[in-house]
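Structure ticket #2291
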Amino acid sequence: MVIGIRSTENLKLIITTDVGLEKLLCSDVENAFLLHYINISCIPLENSGISVVLSSDPVDPFHLARVVTSRYVRGYWAIPIQRVCKASYEEIAKASIELLLLTTASKPIKTVGICRKRGWYIDSCSSLLRYIGNIIESLNIAEVDFHNYEYIFRIEVIQDIAGLTLYRRADAELFRIKRVI
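Resolution: structure written out below.
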């Protein structure tokens, strides 16, 4: 993988920060998990404004995000990742279908898509979201609804990989890191 992560299936969190603070953020994150007995590894993607958290433990990425957002870390958002795939339209579509089918919510799920692109492997987030939206609506597993959505389907593209997650609309603010001024 281009971003220097050998085992991307262990990607659990993407944490945003200021450019240049990626290493300090990782130090903060590792300190936050000292007493949690969870094996994590934080990798700073230097000069990108993001760090990634990996864990080979079978730990819920939402739990990891809650730990990070409840501690002082030099970040803005801790985004849990439920599925990881290569950054291509076809691979992201396949992973999206798998993720949506595994959710316990009744189908079709009313959702809206959010995409963040860091790198050039995907040409356009809006094109990607239209592509995914057409597929999941045609399979009747989700309905794209910009106003009355219940879930947020998030795609984070970092160079040659994509991380996907699905969460309730009401939970969106839970991933914002409380900052000390």
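Closing remark: The first helix runs from residue 22 to 32.
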